[in-house]
Design goal:
533 residues, alpha/beta, 9-stranded mixed beta sheet, 6-stranded parallel beta sheet, 23 strands, globular, disordered C terminus
Length: 533
C-alpha cells in the first residue's frame, strides 16, 4: 500500500464549502486524513508533495461521456485526465457497446461504427463486454449505462416500428442483464435511429424496470423548436415510473429556439416540486457535435445501414430529404434548417477529407452544393463521419450552467477516431474554471467545483466519490487557479489544458506535469445495493 501526503494546499472539498488551507494524506486507494495545513508530517510516507498555491479538489466527474471504447486504445487516454477528470459516465445518448448478440451483430456494429473507432466486438453480453474493458484497464474510472439504441437493435433491429410483445420482453431482459452486470442505469438518444422510433410507452416500460438507485438519462427528442416537448416527455417517463432523471446536454439549438432554456428549466423546477429527482448537464460551448448522418431525417435511416446507403443513391429519396432540410418545421431535429450549412463543420471522417471545413466550404472546394457535399461525405465514408454545429448562443449556455442543479459533462465523442473532434473532448472542465470562474466571474470556484464533483456523484449514486474527506476515494486534482485554462480549439482540438499540475486516480498518480504516467489506475465502478464497490 502506497501513501501520498499533499501539504499546504488550498482545499476545496467538493461540497461547495469555502476554500481552506489543509494537508491531505492518501493511503492506498483512500483518503486517510485531512487536517490543518502544516499539521501532518511526512515521516514514513512514500511521497510528499508541497502544494503551496495550488487548489486541491476532488477529481472531476464527467457527467456525460462517450468514451466506452477508451480502454481499448493502445495508449492511455489523455483527453479527460489532462483536464482533471477522474471518473466519467459512459454509455450515453442510447449508445453502449453491448449487448451484441450474434443474430444482430452486423446491425449493431454498423450502428456503433458511425460513432466509435473500429472494434473487435469479441463479446455478446454486457457482462462479457465489461470483462473485456476491465482486462484492458481504465485511465480514469468508468460508470457505464445501458444504451437504449443498442438494446433495441439487439432485440428488433433498426426498423421504424413498435416492438412486438416478445421483442419488448427481450429488451427488458437485455436491460436486466446490463443492470446485473453493473450498469448504473438506462440512456436514450431520441433524435437518433433506432431510438427515435420509440414511444413514451416503450421508454417508460424499460425505465420501470430500473432499481431505485439507477438513473434514466436522455438526449431529448428535441433540443430546438421542440425543446419544451422533449423536456415534458422526459419528465413524463420519470414521473410515470418514479425513476431518477438526468437530462443530457441541455441546450436550445437553432436561432429560432434561442431563449427557450429558461422555460425548459422552469418545467424541471416544477417537476422537482412534485417530487421528481432531475438534474441536467451542460458543456461550455456554443457548438454541439454528433454524427453527420443526423443531418438527414429519421425516415432516411429506417432499416439500418444498407437501407440508408441505398437511399443516399436514390434520387427520389435525396430530393425528398433536401426539401425537408430546407424548412425547419419542428417535425424532426433539423440541424441544417435550424442553423444553416455554414454552421455545420465536418469534424472527423474515415477518409479524413474536408475535416475542419463547413459543408458550404466543402461544397465550394468540390464545385457542388452543400447538400451534395453532405451526401458525398456520407457515401465516401459509409456513414462514418461526425460534425460540429454552431447552434447555440452564449447567453443560453450560461443560463443552463448557472442553474443550481446543473452538472458539467463534456459529451466528448469517443477518443481514437482522429480528425478534428469538438474541443470539449480536451477542454470542458478547464474551460469552466477559466472562462466562467476566473474571467467572467459568473461562478465562484467552490460552486464550480461542486458542479463538477459531489453533485454529479450524488446524481449518479457514486458514494464516496466527489468529495475530499477521510474515507473517500483518493481521486484528486491539483491545479493552479490563476493559470488553469483550456487550449483546445475547433481546428486544433487535441491540445492539453494548462494549469492541471497533478491528477490522482484511486490513490495513484495518473497525470503529472503535462503527461500521463502510463498507469491505468481507473476502474469500472459497480452498482451494489445503492453503493459503488
Amino acid at each position: 500500500m502506497t501513501s501520498l501526503l499533499i501539504k499546504n494546499c488550498r482545499l476545496l472539498d467538493g461540497t461547495g464549502a469555502a476554500e481552506r488551507p489543509a494537508d491531505v494524506l492518501v493511503s492506498g486507494k483512500m483518503i486517510a486524513a485531512v487536517a490543518d495545513a502544516g499539521s501532518l508530517v511526512g515521516r514514513g510516507v512514500d511521497r510528499v508533495v508541497d502544494a503551496e498555491g495550488l487548489v486541491v479538489a476532488p477529481g472531476f466527474i464527467d457527467a456525460h461521456s462517450h468514451a466506452d471504447s477508451a480502454p481499448f486504445l493502445p495508449e492511455p487516454d489523455v483527453s479527460k485526465i489532462s483536464q482533471g477528470v477522474t471518473t466519467e459516465i459512459v454509455g450515453n445518448c442510447g449508445f453502449s457497446l453491448a449487448p451484441h448478440p450474434g443474430d444482430r451483430s452486423e446491425e449493431i456494429q454498423d450502428m456503433c461504427g458511425r460513432l466509435f473507432p473500429g472494434l473487435s466486438f469479441s463479446w455478446e453480453t454486457t457482462q462479457e463486454f465489461y470483462r473485456a474493458t476491465d482486462a484492458a484497464g481504465y485511465t480514469v474510472n468508468a460508470v457505464p449505462l445501458a444504451g437504449h439504441h443498442t438494446i433495441r437493435a439487439a432485440a428488433m433491429g433498426m426498423d421504424d416500428r413498435a416492438p412486438s410483445p416478445a421483442e419488448s420482453a427481450r429488451m427488458r431482459a437485455y436491460l436486466a442483464d446490463a443492470l446485473a452486470a453493473g450498469a448504473f442505469g438506462l440512456s436514450s438518444g431520441l433524435i437518433y435511429a433506432p431510438g427515435v422510433y420509440a414511444t413514451v410507452d416503450e421508454l417508460a416500460g424499460l425505465a420501470a424496470t430500473l432499481p431505485e438507485d439507477a438513473v434514466y438519462t436522455t438526449h431529448l427528442r428535441g433540443e430546438g423548436l421542440t425543446l419544451l416537448d422533449g423536456v415534458e416527455e422526459a419528465l413524463t417517463v420519470a414521473e410515470r415510473v418514479g425513476c431518477r432523471l438526468q437530462i443530457s446536454h441541455l441546450k436550445a439549438a437553432g436561432k429560432d429556439a434561442w431563449g427557450s432554456v429558461g422555460p425548459a428549466m422552469e418545467l424541471m423546477d416544477l417537476a422537482v416540486g412534485r417530487g421528481v429527482e432531475v438534474h441536467h448537464d451542460v458543456y461550455p460551448y456554443v457548438a454541439n457535435s454528433t454524427m453527420l448522418l443526423s443531418c438527414l431525417p429519421p425516415w432516411f435511416q429506417d432499416g439500418g445501414h444498407e437501407a440508408t446507403m441505398r437511399r443516399l443513391r436514390d434520387p427520389a429519396a435525396l430530393a425528398r430529404a433536401e426539401a425537408e432540410l430546407s424548412r425547419n418545421d419542428a417535425s424532426w431535429e433539423n440541424w441544417v434548417g435550424g442553423s444553416g450549412w455554414s454552421r455545420v463543420l465536418i469534424a472527423a471522417t474515415a477518409d479524413h477529407q474536408d475535416e475542419g471545413l463547413s459543408l458550404d466550404e466543402a461544397a465550394a472546394r468540390r464545385g457542388t452544393t452543400p447538400f451534395q457535399a453532405l451526401v458525398d461525405t456520407l457515401l465516401r465514408n459509409e456513414l462514418r463521419a461526425t460534425m460540429c454545429v454552431f447552434a447555440m448562443r452564449e447567453e443560453d449556455v450560461e443560463a443552463v450552467l448557472l442553474h443550481p442543479r446543473a452538472l458539467v459533462g463534456s459529451d466528448g465523442l469517443p477518443p481514437g477516431t482522429g480528425g478534428k473532434p469538438h474541443p470539449r473532448l480536451y477542454g470542458t472542465f478547464t474551460r469552466v474554471l477559466a472562462r466562467y470562474v476566473r474571467d467572467k466571474e459568473l461562478l465562484s470556484l467552490p460552486e464550480a467545483v461542486a458542479k463538477m464533483t459531489s453533485r454529479t456523484a450524488r446524481a449518479f449514486g457514486l458514494e464516496g466519490r466527489g468529495v475530499i474527506g477521510p474515507g473517500a476515494a483518493a481521486d484528486i486534482v491539483l491545479f493552479d487557479p490563476d493559470r488553469v485554462r483550456d487550449k483546445a480549439t475547433f481546428l486544433e482540438p487535441a491540445q492539453l489544458s494548462e494549469g492541471i499540475e497533478m491528477v490522482v486516480v484511486n490513490g495513484v498518480v495518473g497525470y503529472e506535469q503535462g503527461e500521463v504516467t502510463g498507469v491505468r489506475a481507473g476502474r469500472r465502478l459497480r452498482r451494489a445495493e445503492g453503493r459503488t464497490i
